[in-house]
Amino acid sequence: MNLISATLIFVGLMIGGFVIESLLSQFHHLIFGKHMKKYHYSFSRYLFYLTFPVLAIVFSYFYASPTIVFVFIAFAAVGTFSELIAGFTYHMVVGQRLWTYHRYSINGYTSLFSVPLWGCVGVLFWFLTKII
User: Fold this and answer.
1) 65 by DSSP, 3-state: which?
2) Exposed, middle or buried: residue 108 (CB in 10 Å: 0-12, 13-18, 19+)?
3) Is the dihedral of CA 64, 8, 130, 82 positive or negative?
4) By residue range, what is the domain housing residue 52?
């Protein structure tokens, strides 16, 4: 399988996951007559949201390149560190926080929950650099 096909499947899984999560939310509304609480924390919802990105990474590992795992870990670390530095710097310069995290936060400037998202963005960036 070539990289263009793998990239399209990776992006399709990411977008497909978003669409399925949105449809399930609407389906919940139709059955129970009330919307799901979108802004309340739920660890099970977080794990559900990570299902399709994890499937996309696993697919990429087997069909595109095993270096995907290294790319994922490297970008997750760099992205988290950059978010931490940017949040801290903004707080020190301006005197207020640019954003806040309340669950599993790292000094209030980033969260452990954002680590996998930085990794997925890094893998997408890696795919785009390989195609172009």
Assistant:
1) coil
2) middle
3) negative
4) 3-131
Residues whose CB falls within 8 Å of the CB of residue 1, separated by 6 or more in sequence, listed in order: 63, 64
Q: What is the pLDDT of residues 74-92, one digit of tens each?
A: 999 999 999 999 999 999 9
What tokens were used for 109?
Answer: 């400037």
State the amino acid at position 67 in one-letter form: T
Residue 84 CB contacts under 8 Å (≥ 6 apart), including other chains: 106, 107, 109, 110
DSSP 33: S
On whether the pTM is more than 0.85, the answer is: no
Residues 4/130, Cβ–Cβ less than 8 Å: no
Which amino acid, residue 97? Answer: R
* Beta partners for residue 76, in sequence order: none
- Answer whether 27's CB lies under 8 Å from 35's CB: no
* Cβ–Cβ under 8 Å, residues 72 and 120: yes
User: Tens of pLDDT along 14-60?
Assistant: 888 888 888 887 887 788 877 666 666 667 777 777 888 888 888 88
Q: Round to whole Å and give the CA distance between 54 and 79.
A: 17
Total domain count for the chain? 1
